[in-house]
From TrEMBL:
<dbReference type="Pfam" id="PF01593">
    <property type="entry name" value="Amino_oxidase"/>
</dbReference>
<keyword id="KW-0274">FAD</keyword>
<dbReference type="InterPro" id="IPR036188">
    <property type="entry name" value="FAD/NAD-bd_sf"/>
</dbReference>
<dbReference type="GO" id="GO:0046592">
    <property type="term" value="F:polyamine oxidase activity"/>
</dbReference>
<protein>
    <submittedName>
        <fullName>Polyamine oxidase</fullName>
    </submittedName>
</protein>
<keyword id="KW-0560">Oxidoreductase</keyword>
<comment type="pathway">
    <text>Amine and polyamine degradation; spermine degradation.</text>
</comment>
<dbReference type="GO" id="GO:0050660">
    <property type="term" value="F:flavin adenine dinucleotide binding"/>
</dbReference>
<dbReference type="GO" id="GO:0006598">
    <property type="term" value="P:polyamine catabolic process"/>
</dbReference>
<feature type="compositionally biased region" description="Acidic residues">
    <location>
        <begin position="128"/>
        <end position="139"/>
    </location>
</feature>
<dbReference type="InterPro" id="IPR002937">
    <property type="entry name" value="Amino_oxidase"/>
</dbReference>
<keyword id="KW-0285">Flavoprotein</keyword>
<feature type="domain" description="Amine oxidase">
    <location>
        <begin position="16"/>
        <end position="394"/>
    </location>
</feature>
<comment type="similarity">
    <text>Belongs to the flavin monoamine oxidase family.</text>
</comment>
<feature type="region of interest" description="Disordered">
    <location>
        <begin position="126"/>
        <end position="149"/>
    </location>
</feature>
<dbReference type="InterPro" id="IPR050281">
    <property type="entry name" value="Flavin_monoamine_oxidase"/>
</dbReference>
Length: 410
């Protein structure tokens, strides 16, 4: 096996967290670092691709948390480098719900379904806290069954999907929105969201004409084993290279940690493994469709629309790209979790047929066929194994505290 000189710190993963960690180390005088990235680029889940003549974001696409009492550093960086964005408000999506006959669901029904979905989520959390299966004692000591608020109709399923899958429900308010504000901006820049990462990297890595040429960043280095002891760490990659350092910062996704890609020697303690396994991993797939011309509404508050189907999450949430890229004639449909995995396992032609059938339900049989489709695969990507993660919804907080303790000591 090849060997390299020992460094102070090895950073595994060159996504936004890995780049940020390297930046902080450099700012504090630690410059003898090595960054090992499994793919052929930096960015991780920030990834652009040219589609339909424009640059689309396959992963992270919004800057969330703008307009609050504190300045969002990502937003400040975007402003500093003139990243093109447009305000994005999908709160009106629930009033643009089409049924399978192409009719818009009346706003009153949509609003009632939204309230029911919120009440259902609150009830579920309360039930889990008291550990009772939808039963409680009445004044006579008898058991009575609570009325079910489980979504059943297609419109209820659609709204439940947007509340709990599309936005991924949280037990506690998301600090991003609490601290930085509730406004969100869609990145619509031909240079891509990852332009900000390259600008960050310029401060501590050698770059030339927008390319990183610094030999401390090593691409296509798939880490397979991490050996750690009191003497430091040894990292072994798939191509047989060995890297040694005093410390390691592991900046891979929770999905990767839950997979068998990385081996730890000695193994991680059981409590760490249990904390990792209990964290939810969300698969979030944005499918892009290019059309010869526009056939969907584009007026105010029409950027997002939904499809009500008896199968929860079946091509539910749609967005047109006219605000971001006028005249692009591109639609985006978001799938998550089970539907994402199902679509990744089939051909793009099958996915295109399904999507077109849904669009013809909404807009009629005479709409044109899509002329191109782009289907990202985040679940079957062994360097990702999902899109993002979250703390599990639990009542006692023990897993969360264990996970935070583990993160603080890596």
């Amino acid at each position: 096996m090849d060997s390299t000189n020992r460094s102070s710190v090895i950073i595994i993963g060159a996504g936004i967290s890995g780049i940020s960690a390297a930046k902080v180390l450099s700012e504090n005088g630690v410059e003898d670092i090595v960054m090992l990235e499994a793919s052929d680029r930096i960015g991780g889940r920030i990834r652009k691709e040219c589609f339909g003549g424009v640059s689309v974001e396959l992963g992270a696409g919004w800057i969330a948390g703008v307009g609050g009492r504190e300045a969002n550093p990502v937003w400040e960086l975007a402003v500093q480098h003139n990243l093109k964005t447009c305000f994005s408000d999908y709160s009106n999506a629930r009033f643009n719900i089409y049924d399978q006959s192409g009719k818009l669901i009346p706003s009153g029904i949509a609003d009632d379904s939204y309230k029911k979905a919120v009440e259902s989520a609150i009830q579920k959390l309360r039930d889990e806290e008291v550990e009772e299966d939808d039963e409680e004692a009445n004044d006579d000591g008898n058991k009575v069954t609570k009325p079910s608020l489980t979504p059943k109709t297609p419109v209820e399923l659609a709204i439940d999907f947007i509340l709990h899958d599309f936005e991924m429900a949280e037990v506690e308010p998301i600090s991003t929105y609490v601290d930085f504000g509730e406004r969100e901006f869609l990145v619509a820049d031909e240079r891509g969201y990852d332009h900000l990462l390259y600008k960050m990297a310029e401060g501590f890595l050698f770059t030339s004409e927008g390319r990183i040429l610094d030999d401390r960043l090593k691409l296509n280095k798939v880490v397979r084993e991490l050996q750690h002891s009191r003497n430091g760490v040894t990292v072994i990659t798939e191509d047989g290279c060995v890297y040694e350092a005093n410390y390691v910062i592991l900046s891979v996704s929770i999905g990767v940690l839950q997979s068998d890609l990385l081996a730890f020697n000695p193994p991680l303690p059981r409590w760490k493994l249990e904390a990792i396994e209990k964290c939810d991993v969300m698969v979030y797939t944005k499918i892009f469709l290019k059309f010869p011309y526009r056939f969907w509404p584009c007026g105010p508050e029409k950027e997002f629309f939904m499809y009500a189907h008896e199968q929860r999450g079946y091509y539910t949430f749609w967005q047109h790209m006219d605000n971001a890229y006028p005249g692009s004639n591109i639609l985006v449909v978001t799938l998550t979790n089970g539907e994402s995995k199902r679509v990744e396992a089939q051909t793009n032609e099958e996915t295109l047929r399904e999507a077109m059938a849904v669009l013809r339900d909404m807009f009629g049989p005479n709409i044109p066929d899509a002329i191109d489709i782009l289907v990202p695969c985040w679940w079957n990507n062994r360097f990702q194994r999902g899109s993002y993660s979250n703390f599990p919804i639990i009542s006692n907080g023990s897993c969360r505290s264990h996970f935070l303790h583990w993160r603080a000591h890596q």
